[in-house]
Amino acid sequence: MKFSVDKHDKYVVLKLKETKFTNENTPKLKSEFILLNAEGYCNIVLDLSSIKQCDDSQDLSSLLVGDRLCKSAQGLFIVTGLNDCVSSLLEMSNLDQSLTIVSKLDEATDLIFMEEIEKELLGSVDKG
Q1: Element (H, E) at 47
Q2: Which residues are 12's β-sheet partners?
Q3: pLDDT digit of tens for each residue in the chain (128 aa)?
């Protein structure tokens, strides 16, 4: 699976460079989630805007790995750039209920920064 990784201070953006989401390329994606998490990234944004075809909701279950890793690290896993095909598969499999989905990348980064500010504020309240 081809993708780009754009690392920032508080988050990382994974942009897939494939047109198909299949069970042949999802293991590499899962491995990347695990690697990024091990590097200390608890906020991951997955940009699926290049994905035009996904035939099986089972392939999309790999997204739950990223979601689980981020949640256990008190972070966010956000999916963006969904086309109608992928979106309807997520709905049919009820994955849309567990994943955080936004339409644009800047919405994802705004959400992450709001969450980080909230954590800092709550942290300072706990200490005070």
Answers
A1: strand 44-47
A2: 7, 44
A3: 789 999 999 999 999 898 988 888 888 999 999 999 999 999 999 999 999 888 777 778 889 999 999 999 999 999 999 988 889 888 988 889 999 999 999 999 999 999 999 988 988 666 55
What is the token pair recorded at 111? 């959400």
> How long is the chain?
128
Containing 100, the helix (H) or strand (E) segment is strand 100-102
Is-contact 75 42, C-beta < 8 A? yes
> What's the pTM value of the predicted model, to 2 decimals?
0.91
C-alpha 18/C-alpha 50 separation (Å) is 6
Q: Alpha helix locations (H) across the chain?
A: 26-38, 57-60, 62-72, 84-92, 95-98, 105-127
Torsion of CA 36, 87, 114, 8, to 10 degrees: 30
Burial group, residue 30, by CB count within 10 angstroms (0-12, 13-18, 19+): middle
3-state secondary structure of 104: coil
